[in-house]
């Protein structure tokens, strides 16, 4: 598109018409495409600045105004090296003047103008330093009158509208230099952006900080002088200005400061992540100490907040700088060895906080922001700092925090709106976690000799701990104390919902949603055990008695369901909820809840100390009597189908726990009473009156009990409570009774809750916990009840086995095998034999019968069981696990052939093979001949799997439109399987060494050893033709696929060249597609990462002119087009530099030919531009003596030899090329 003044008006009319068509919903595709083409030509046109000015002055079309400003920005950045020195300042001034004079601009047009001005200002920075200076130079006298200085000088003499625009412009400038997702990429390297940011920070940013402080101070003082104490009484424009200033302060305080040791950390990629996560702390460098540690800064910000508290919108923007200031840390305190500066800051901040909130209750809309403020303050405050602050001030502060927490508990429970409820929950969660973690995150040691620290620790936790715990418990419990006369207390769901949707998953939801909160409540409870544990135990005992009484009345009165609904439903519902929460809370208090399965669970030292302290007060006769009751079952039912449920422990059910009994034992034995009452209710056909939610949380509690307390080894503790040792100790009579009780309960749960998947899953985890415990294994070996689980399990047609989920079956069989501790056990061998027989039986079934629903369920059940066997495998049991698994792998391939249309079975088979990789292949010792044979057989099965999977997936090259990604779950699993196989770290050298040894020493074995990489490459050969454009449009699939290619090429580039040329060629085509596909930065990154290893191997092997060289040359052209014909994503800039260097090493003359042809084709008509670009390329790759040869250039071959120092030099030159020349390549 060419411009001449006489054609401006006609062009304006044409573009305005195109703008109307583009934004109109009612136009044809042809009209829209033609209009979009006009805008593309407009944006790509050369030097459109005069016409853009004309458009801005003569059109009212907002969309066109936006596109015009965008065109000015794009064109100027593209032509930067060619622009006269005075053009950019003139454009900046024009845009700002236009913004001031035009009163009715849309917000998005305003933002684009401000961003363009800021972008030009930042781009100037790139020209003011060299890369090696890291932006450390100071502004010269000539540069002092910069954009920021001009804005600050202009502010005081301007009206409110101008002031708002100035604040918006400064905000845009900060955003551009912050190197976050708010800044423009500008086609420059990470280092260039960092250098510009560093220079800005050391100069203009200081001026902005002083400006916002002085401006805020002046505005607040003016409001006070005019007796304005509430923001609601000022005019709209003044209020908007104040909000703008608060935004500017907040953005300034969110600045991530640079320093020489943080160069890599602060590059754009990382900053984008941190900005999105909103985790940037305020960490100024020492040169900003005077500003941020000024006591008047804290006072001013809190005073500002007081004035605007009553206005929700303004208060939100006003408190953000305070929240950010509360994160103050870093090198600003680096010389503060006596913590004087930190203490002074904390005192000022806490005092100002109390002055604001102590006598003015925190409003609902303030709660979340105030919680963020408190959270940050606690996270940045150590106990050493707190110990040096006046105790009265500290006590007032934590008293205020506690009061706020209690109010949040109450408000969250009272909320009917889920959104408001979540707001309060998040508010108190932040404070609880930060407060309870102070001692851990800051290295508090209770054994420390610093008595001041210990006293402060007691002050912070003990004084308020019980108050917090009690308030939280009250907020979770819903059943009223006054329950003597049964009445409907409040609305609730019916019994059917209790037994189904509501309670089925709430326990797991609560464990997940409240996990961090429960950890925090645990810490507070452990600091107030003398009060917390008796409260929880008493409540639990009361709730149990209430539940038992209601169930007894229901049974005695023989009420109908309708009558029960009317009189008892609400009570049962609320009691179940209360018991559920008490189990969760005290489970966290009593046990160490580890998220990592391999970690050993020990009794917390606080619990051990508390139990030892009260051991003398425990009534030993009562305790022994209670222990004996665990074994006092009575035959009360006659159910032939469930013989284990005929005997019920009525004495345990009816036992009433004394109020003064050991609260730890009281709670645990009450939980055992709950398990027995569940058994009894099932036998009475009353199970539907109980909650699966309670059953699940109870099973979770018992699992933690079995992992932490039961059979606890004395050697793991420096001291041990006599009571806990007596009741739960290893090989004690009481411990054995409790273990036997739990085993019986596990089996019963599989019967009575077989249809409740979440509950049976938790029950299976109890089984897994006790089976993994080596101290219990001797007891389990001869336990009849324990092995009766295996007998029920092995009979697939017997209840409850048919109702249990596949995952539960997998956990059960895994547990039973693990319990043998690797020793050959008759029961385990019997389980494996039965499983083998059931698999073998499938071979004798007619193919048509295999498609029946019952047979499909049988296959799925067997595969889940086999996955359990595989998960249980370890180096101690390989001798009898491998003979079971190997034939099943072969059969799994056959089953895949039969059931290739059944997605669930296909996924189970792929998961089985994935488990074999992780659990079997990693356990095999390649120095043992028999293990090498096993490994070879496993890899043979993998090859068979690939062959069958490929056989039934070839048709997927053509897929239906609008198909969902779930359709490709099996393909995704297959890709994941190959990546997992790659990641087991069988590198080539070790594998070749092992193979050579086996060849020399074991010729008689006649083993044709298969290499893992060959299996992976075979899988890749099947995948590459299949992964067409239609399939790769799914993001998850494409990422996993290109990740696989990157992994293979990075570690095995030599293998790629040794396979067939067809595989190599299709691999290169896949990489090309990944680069050009538009599937996202991650896919392009994996594709580019695949190139360097190929180039390195090709260069070292001198294969550039071989058959393999041709497709790589073609790939080189694709990469050159990516870099020089399209704008590079900033995240890929450094990677592109490395890839380009590797390519030039292999094909220097191809690069020179491309550049010469590129310049000739694109810029032959513009000699000035052509000369600039040629100079840039000369500087990038040519010898210094060749810099004057403009017509053509030759590469300095001595620099392109893959040496690290030369690659680093090239990266530096490429960075300079990007600043001075790169933008010119896109001028048309």
UniProtKB/TrEMBL annotation:
**Is Nucleus given among the entry's keywords?**
yes
Q: Name one GO molecular function term.
A: nuclear export signal receptor activity
Q: Which GO terms describe its biological process?
A: protein export from nucleus
Annotated localization:
Cytoplasm; Nucleus
Q: What is its main location?
A: cytoplasm
Keyword Transport set for record: yes
The name under which this protein is listed is Exportin-4
Instruction: State the species of origin.
Output: Brachionus calyciflorus
